[in-house]
Write a structure and sequence with these properties.
The protein has 7 helices and no strands. With 206 residues, the protein is mainly α. The relative contact order is 0.17. The protein has helices at 2-17, 38-68, 72-98, 107-123, 126-148, 156-178, 186-205.
Length: 206
Amino acid sequence: MLDRFIIEFDKGLRTLLAPAHSRRPYPDHALDEQLSDQQEKRHAAALMRINHSGEVCAQALYSGQSLSARNPDTARALQQAAEEETEHLAWCEKRIKELGSHTSVLNPIFYGGSFGLGLLAGCLGDKWNLGFLAETERQVGQHLTEHLNKFPVQDIKSQAIIQQMRADEAAHADSAIAHGAAELPLPIRATMRLFSNIMTTTTYHL
């Protein structure tokens, strides 16, 4: 357990401090930049900063969940989701830099809170652990769909990234359900949405 904790702690440091890398091609790699208005660039960057922080939270949640998971199959499902979330981090980071902005200064706080929630979810048992994974991915997918309508029409690069992220999140949710995820009670789902709203509101500016 100590070795696993050290590994997850190292992953956390790399998530927060080191540039992320993608094994797959960047979804926008074949698209030319069409966004030139500075105000629209700032808005697009703020939206991508929200998405980046969401991926930081997902990394922390899955790290905590895999650490406390009891079933090796559950841990592997969580680790696979986390690997793709790392690619999402890389895509968002690159796009934010292209738009001339920065990632959120609040990411360490969000990471710590999400990691603790993940540990708790794992301690409740594998079906609830997977339930948190499925519900997280469902809510992230809904959030990404809403964001697609908020980007400037000309920002086809950001839109391409969000579309691929949304497809990946749906696949993660389906995988969790296939592994036996339980449906979370309504109060827990509502609390997760509240936390998400707080994160999105603050990281748009910070």
